[in-house]
Amino acid sequence: MSSCIVTGAARGNGSAIALRLRERGHYVVGVDREPIAGAQADCALAGDVLDEATIAAAFDAALAHGGGEVHLVNNAGITQPGFPQPDAVWQSTIDVNLTAPFRWSRSFGARAAEGKIRAGGIVFIGSLATQLGFPKNPAYQASKAGALGLTRAFAYDLGGFGIRVNCVSPGYIHTAMTEGSFRNPELNLARRRHTLLDRWGQPEDVANAVAFLCDPASSYITGINLPVDGGWMVCGLIENT
To answer: Is the pTM of this model over 0.85?
Structure first.
C-alpha cells in the first residue's frame, strides 16, 4: 500500500483529494491547522505547513505505512486579494503557497536521495493564475506561477530517482474560497459562461485528477501542468454562448 500526504486536508479541494485517495486504497496522512474528519485521513496531523517538525512527522507516518512508495500533494493555499497589497499580505501568501510546498518537496527529495522513498511522486496544486493573468492579487499570481516552476524543477531533479512531479491547476471550483462569487448571480453566470462545459467545477473534479497522477496509470507522466478548468483557458477572450 502506498502512502499519500495531503496538506490542507480539512476542507475544500484538500478534503476531497484526501477522501478520493483513501478510497483508491492509499494510506492518507492529512495535515491541517483545522480538524480533519475521520473519513478523510488514516492519520490526521494538526500543524502549520511551514513547520519543519510537522513536515518530519508527516513523512515518518507515511513511510511507516507506505513501503517506500509515497505521494505528496501540496494542496494547502490561501488567497488575500487586494490592490495594492501590503508587504505582510505578500509575505504570508508566498509563505503558504510557495515556501511551504518547496519545504515539503525538499524533504521528499532528501528522503528519495537517502533511499527511504523509492517510488511515488509529488503533485502541486496550481490555479488559473498559474498560466493566466489574475486581477488585483499579485501575491497569489506570483505564488501560483511559482508552483509550476517548482513542478518543473523537482521533476528535473527527482526524475533520476523514478519520482514523478506534476501540477494540477483548477479553474473555478465551488469551495469556501469561491463561495462569494458562486453566490453572486452575475459573477456565477460570468464564470460559467466562460467555461466550455457550462458549469462550475466541484472539488471531486480536482480530486480525480490528483488521484490519476498518483496512480500507476500515469507512470510515464512528469513535469506537466494539468488544467482542471472545464475549458476555461481554451475559451480565450470569447464567451461560451
So the answer is: yes
pLDDT digits (tens, 9 = 90+) for 153-187: 999 999 999 999 999 999 999 988 888 888 998 88
140 is catalytic: yes
Q: What's the rounded Cα separation, in Å, for the pair 130 and 184?
A: 25
State the burial class of residue 57 (Cβ atoms within 10 Å of its Cβ: 0-12, 13-18, 19+): middle
Choose among 96, 227, 216: nearest CA to 164.
216
Q: Are 232 and 128 in contact (CB under 8 A)?
A: yes
Which sign, positive or negative, has the C-alpha torsion 57, 41, 173, 215? positive
- Of residues 140, 156, 172, 220, which has the active-site annotation? 140
State how far the alpha carbon of 89 is from the alpha carbons of 78, 83, 98, 145, in Å. Answer: 10, 11, 13, 17
